[in-house]
Amino acid sequence: MTTKIEGPRLAPLPPTSAAESADRKARASADEKIGATAASDSVRLTGAGSEIAAVARSAGEPAPFDAAKVERVRAALADGSFKVDSRLIADRLLAAEKDLPR
């Protein structure tokens, strides 16, 4: 038993005319330009796209840090005046959950 597959023998193509040859060259030249953008092309991002772009730009940067706020919270925790608003936390958790993909 042999596993070799042989297809039909193809005859060589006849020579093309000068017009066909020029047409093939023009198409090849156009194919090379695919992927190139014209100067008039533009991109417009949606709101979500803009947010994603902003996150991507800031991905390598450290997160913002407010040292004064940290000290205020630390002092409020130390003296017992820090109050937790459980309704606000619950509302924000529910809002964040709504934004999660399903």
Q: Can you describe this structure?
A:
The chain is mainly alpha-helical. It contains four helices and no strands. The protein starts with 17 loop residues before the first helix and ends with a helix. The relative contact order is 0.04.
> What's the helix-strand series?
HHHH
Instruction: Indicate the overall shape.
Output: elongated
Low-confidence stretches: none
- Helix/strand/pairing category: mainly alpha
Task: Please specify the SSE layout and strand pairing.
Blueprint: H1 18-33, H2 47-58, H3 67-79, H4 86-99
Quick structural summary:
This protein is mainly α and 102 residues long.
Task: For this entry, give a set of tags.
102 residues, mainly alpha, 4 helices, elongated
